[in-house]
Design brief:
about 50% helix, single chain, 8 helices, alpha/beta
Length: about 230
């Protein structure tokens, strides 16, 4: 009995495959450059203001809570690591918690109360008036982050959101939002990382200004023998 042949799609030549990949990569870079230019015009002031504001909260005993889903959870944990550890210069560590990172709490709350309550429950436990809540979402529509925003507002926290394009519910629910006007989820996440780094840069700069004595010595004030976060 003759064997039946099955139709198979032709395999493109390696050169054509490489060329298509190069075009896709170039388009990705162009989209990122365009988005970065828009961010520079529209979002830079906001994110540096957030860093400066955070420098007035954390040294006084305040706390940052951060949350997201998937890649945005990784971004949230990146931010808290920069604050507990350091960004680019030596300084004290400050209280910052990524709410997805406690796996026992996450699985307990998810199991007992549902995924939509994953962060709201933790915020009700940890959030205090004057603390800051940072929520990251490319869509701005995740139910657990919307519940988190409501829980943060109820706890008296300042709620900031980083999202994709407006309009979206999370941007509307936050006290302030940084929205990234980009079509691709990857581009939004890449810009969120840039924004987080600039927030940390502004935070460190504000701390340095707050602890640097005036050039004239500030009257009766004397400079400390060693700056508290001088690089070594």
């Amino acid at each position: 009995m003759p064997r039946l042949r099955t139709a198979t799609a032709p395999v493109p030549p390696a050169a054509a495959t490489a060329e298509a990949a190069a075009r896709a990569a170039a388009e990705h870079c162009r989209a990122l450059q365009d988005t970065l230019a828009r961010f520079h015009r529209q979002g830079l002031t906001r994110v540096t203001a957030w860093g400066t504001a955070l420098a007035a909260v954390l040294p006084g005993g305040g706390r940052l809570l951060a949350a997201g889903n998937g890649g945005s959870a990784a971004q949230a944990q990146h931010l808290t690591a920069e604050l507990v550890g350091r960004y680019s210069r030596e300084r004290p560590g400050f209280s910052a918690i990524a709410l997805h990172a406690d796996t026992s709490t996450v699985t307990a709350v998810g199991n007992d109360y549902g995924f939509d309550s994953l962060y709201a429950r933790q915020i009700a436990a940890h959030g205090r008036p004057g603390d800051v809540l940072m929520l990251l979402s490319t869509s701005g529509r995740s139910p657990n982050l919307l519940a988190a925003a409501r829980s943060g507002r109820k706890a008296g926290m300042t709620v900031w959101a980083m999202t994709g394009r407006r309009p979206n519910p999370l941007a509307a629910a936050a006290d302030e939002a940084l929205t990234i006007d980009a079509a691709a989820t990857a581009t939004v996440q890449e810009m969120h990382l840039v924004a987080l780094h600039l927030l940390c840069e502004a935070f460190d700069s504000a701390l340095t200004r707050a602890t640097t004595p005036p050039a004239d010595g500030g009257g009766d004030r004397t400079a400390p023998e060693e700056a508290p976060w001088e690089a070594v």
